[in-house]
Fold:
Amino acid sequence: MTILLSSKNGVPIYDQICSQIRDQIIGGKLKENEMLPSIRGLAKDLGISFITTKRAYEELEREGFIYTLPAKGCYVAPKNVELIREENLKKIEKHFSEAAKLAAANGISGEELLKMFTLTMEENL
Structure:
């Protein structure tokens, strides 16, 4: 499992850990029931506080991406298709929002943007 942290992007460390583990689970790099590094081990490897790593794991468990077995560790939860779909919908909405802002800043109408999107979809299907 690879996690890269940045103190310059303004995103809290626990959130960077969550999003990177979440992306690796959704992308299939981390498999169902695969054991994750221990909270203390990951904190040591990343050179961060145990509390920060614990918060990230708790968030992932709350979201249903991992589960914990007492005295055994944390594991990747079986994939929930609806959960993965929801995460991907959030990403798409974020990209749409960025595209709309960029279009507005450049005087591109909604109709033009829709045509661009339609052409892009046709090219990729």
Summary: The first strand starts at residue 66 and ends at 69. The chain has five helices and two strands.
